[in-house]
Write a structure and sequence with these properties.
By secondary structure, this protein is of the alpha+beta class. It contains ten helices and five strands. It is rod-shaped and about 145 Å long.
Length: about 400
């Protein structure tokens, strides 16, 4: 327990009023006896010593934290007690004055510092001191009776002080524990609010990616197929146009199903990664007519479904960007999985773009980088006037 808490807990003024009245009554009786039966000089001297003794008690309320004061205070009090007890004509109450003064010092120490080592060591020192003083006053014959009386009377009070300090310490621990719990609950509430906010933000980003990968890519593919239909109809190639229309209908239904699954968070994907890759590339070739070379190798796939699903979506986004922007005539796709390692590479011979200057609304590129981050993989994009190369690697540098 810190000093401020101890000072607040130790009710100083009532305690010092009590010891002032207790010791004052003893000294008043002694002064009266000295004034009547002895010399007024001894009475005045005893009164001055008593005032110094009590004054030091009251000064200790403010100065007890000062280490220099500590080493002055207790020697000064002991000297005053020795002088008062050994004054001539005070022998009638010397044991009472000695026991009461030392007991007040012990009680003060317990009140100021609680059940600490400082109080223990100081109490042992004062006990040894009082035993020595009693021996000097009553001799060997009466020391055991005097010490027994002091232990019975003073020990009970000291025991009460120790028990009070113990209860005070337990109550303080309970208060500190309650404050710690309150602080922890406040921090926990703040953390929960932050987690809830981050969860909501991540969920929005996830839904944005899923809807982009289904609706946006699906609609973009339909637009490309419809443009192909228009071109074939303009060239009177009705059979080819009819075939593309059938493909467009199939793609529209697939896009609708995938969009519903994404909204319901029940999006299904082919468990065969090789088939899923080939299906995406075939759709791309049919919609654009661009030549596409494939290199697919799946060997003992140990990657989580989420990782391969992110890779397939990066592939879809890459092919969509090639169809819409690259003006390419050749594309090569490399998709390799070996145990827990994966490499995806999409390369084209298009016009390229500035990778450092992303156009407004480039949700596709943003989504690819987010997917790479979520899988712990590495996504690199290189582009110049000779074409673009997108690499997505998981499990190895």
């Amino acid at each position: 327990m810190d000093t401020n808490s101890r000072q607040d807990s130790f009710i100083a003024y009532p305690f010092y009023i009590f010891i002032s009245l207790l010791l004052g009554s003893i000294i008043t009786f002694s002064i009266r006896e000295l004034w009547i039966s002895a010399s007024w000089m001894y009475a005045v001297g005893l009164g001055i010593l008593f005032l110094a003794h009590i004054g030091l008690f009251w000064m200790n309320i403010r100065e007890y934290e000062n280490l220099r004061w500590f080493y002055f205070y207790y020697p000064a009090q002991i000297v005053l007690i020795v002088i008062m007890v050994n004054l001539p004509f005070v022998s009638t109450i010397h044991l009472t004055l000695l026991g009461s003064s030392v007991l007040c010092l012990i009680g003060e120490a317990l009140g100021l510092w609680g059940n600490t080592r400082r109080s223990l060591y100081l109490g042992i020192f004062l006990f040894v001191f009082i035993v020595g003083m009693v021996y000097l006053q009553v001799g060997r014959e009466g020391i055991w009776i005097a010490i027994s009386n002091l232990l019975v009377n003073g020990g009970f009070i000291v025991l009460l002080m120790v028990m009070y300090n113990q209860q005070l310490a337990e109550r303080q621990k309970a208060v500190e524990l309650a404050e710690s719990l309150e602080s922890a609950n406040a921090k926990l509430a703040a953390y929960n609010a932050k987690i809830e906010s981050l969860t909501l933000q991540n969920e929005r980003q996830r839904m944005a990616r899923e809807l982009h990968d289904t609706l946006a890519q699906g609609v973009a593919g339909l637009v490309l197929q419809l443009e192909a239909v228009k071109a074939h109809l303009g060239a009177n190639r009705t059979e080819r146009a009819s075939a593309i229309v059938e493909q467009s209908i199939t793609r529209a239904r697939s896009t609708l199903a995938e969009s519903r699954a994404a909204i319901d968070d029940l999006r299904a994907a082919s468990t065969n990664v090789s088939d899923a890759v080939r299906e995406k590339i075939e759709r791309f070739k049919q919609a654009t007519g661009i030549s596409c070379e494939m290199e697919i190798s799946i060997n003992e796939n140990q990657l989580p479904f989420e990782t391969t699903n992110h890779a397939l979506n990066i592939l879809s986004e890459s092919l969509t960007n090639i169809a819409r922007h690259a003006q390419a005539t050749q594309v090569k796709v490399v998709f390799i999985i070996q145990d827990q390692n994966m490499q995806l590479e999409v390369r084209d011979n298009g016009i390229g773009f500035d990778v450092n200057q992303k156009p407004d609304g480039s949700y596709g590129l943003i989504g690819m980088h987010e997917r790479a981050r979520l899988t712990g993989g590495m996504l690199s994009i290189e582009s110049n006037q000779s074409g673009t190369c997108i690499q997505f690697i998981v499990g190895r540098s």
